[in-house]
Structures are given as C-alpha cells and as structure tokens.
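Pair request: fold both.
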Amino acid sequence: MNAPATTSLPRALSAEHRQRLMRLAHEVSYAQGARLFEEGGHADRFWIIRTGTVDLDIRVPGRRAAVIDSLGHNELLGWSWLFPPHTWHLGAEAVTPLRAYEFDAAQVRAACHDDPEFGRTVAEWVGQIVAHRLRAARTRLLDLYGPYGSGGAR
C-alpha cells in the first residue's frame, strides 16, 4: 500500500528540511527476509526506503504475525523512534532486497530539539504517517479477522 503524497519524504518536507535530515543519513542494505525490527524492541533508528519493499506486521496471539502494510520507495520505515518510550509498535521484514537511508534516532531528535521549526515539520510528517498506518492496520486486521465486509473505509 503506497502512502498518500503528504507522507512521502519529497512532498512532506521542504527542500531545506529534507537536506538537513539527509545530512544525518547513511546508506544500508538488507537481504530479502531480513528482520529490521521486532514489535516491543528498542526503536533507536529509522529508515527511508530507496529501493525494495518492507512488510509491516503485528503479532496476533495464537496466529502468525499479520502483515498490515507494505512500504516502498521514499517511504518512512519506523516512527516509534520519535515518541517515548521509543519502543517498536510493529515488526518489519524485507520482502525484497532493500536499500535504504538509515538514521540514528538520537541524532535526529537532537536536531529537532536544536531547531524547533525543523522539529515541528518532522513531527507533523511522522504524525501523518502514524495516522495513515493506524488506518491501514485497522482495515487490514478487519479484513483478516472481522466479519465479511467490515474492513472497508469509513
């Protein structure tokens, strides 16, 4: 599922703020099938996907983890780094080989603290992503486990 235009990096942040954020990035690669993080783990980093696809999943007691969203090019992977207690709310697995920009969460939080306008912009961007992912999770879980037809948009 692709994110709405306002949640993809190029449209969500001004050129100045995008450049500031990208100065904190370094490139990483992951093999297909790699687990990037687990629900409940410490959220100390995040990524912007360059190429490849990542599935977000949630543990469901007595069942396999349910995939609730798929992310791709220019999408933010990970938002739990911004909000205390900095614990992952979902899990993530590379569906294909993955290339991404990785960010140290503490560095980005410090940059947000040092420049309140940058911090506000980043917080709004991440907040929009959280809202989008919450809607996606609700819909996907209703599709998987709810009564037939209950997962449609409301």
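--- second member of the pair ---
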Amino acid sequence: MTTPAQHDRDLAEGRVARLKQDLRAGIAAPPGDVEAMDELVTTAHRLLDAEVAFDEAGRRLATAELESRHAATQRAVVWFAAAPVLVALVAGALVLFEVLSPGWLPVLVPLFGAGLWIGFGPVRRAGAVLRERMRAAWAGSLAAVLLVGALLPWSAAVVFTILTALGVAGTIALLWRESRIP
C-alpha cells in the first residue's frame, strides 16, 4: 500500500518519463516546420516543469518518511525510558531507606536524568538525531539491566557495577552527541 506522498512521486515520475519519451521522439526526426519546432519547445518546457514537480514530490516523500520515523522513535523511546527511570527510582528508594549506601547516588542520579531525557526530551526531526536517541535509549535500558545485576548480592556484582558505570557514561555520551548534531 502506498502513501499519498509515494503516489504523488510515482505520478510525477511517470509524467517525466512520458514527456522525455515525447521529446526523444520529436528530436529523432528533425522538425520540418515552425509549428513542429514550437511543439517541441513546449514539450521541453513541460518536461522542465514536470521535473521540478518530481523533485518536489521526492522531497515531500522524504519528509513524510522522516515524520513517520520521528513518530515511531518518540513512541519507542518512551518505552525504553521506563527501565532507567524505574530502576533508578527503586534504587534511590533503597538508598533513602539505607538499604544501599549513598555511594550509589553518583550512578543513580545520572541514570535517572538520562532516562527522563530519553523519554521526555524533545526529539528533532533529523535522521541522525533519531538514530542517536534510539542508541541512547538502548544504552540506558542496558545500563538499567546492568544496575539490577550490580545490586544483587552475588560474586559478579563488582563487574556489573563497573559495567553499569560504563553504561551510564555511554548513555550520557550518546545524549550529549545527539545534542551536538546540527
């Protein structure tokens, strides 16, 4: 099923192809009189107008596809942001009730802030921005999962703690990189 923008682009492409064919047919046999030459010039002008319309339809199609990606990214990052926000909130509550030491706050606060920014920060309509926001969303979710592994009392908690810190730093770096995209 095609979208209206794809349909407009296809129609414009067909019109350009038809006018090019007419122009080639007119040039193949040299025009014998002035009326034939005028018709050939008119066809060339129509071809130029059709090519401009085709370019505009291509731009509208690209804009429509970017808008679709933008909407899908906005929906996805809200879901991805749930993990870093909720895990950071629960771990923050554990710090508040003195189950965890306050040494976890340098990891929890940035993870919570990054999760909020991932989920609720404005997402500009640029392909590079959309890619970076999705990467940051994945990194934030991974950091939240690693944080859960770091909070469990087991032998690999130290490794998970280091990986959590790296994951949080990576998430913040991706969000910073996204903000630097023009």
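Observation on the second member. The mean pLDDT is 91.
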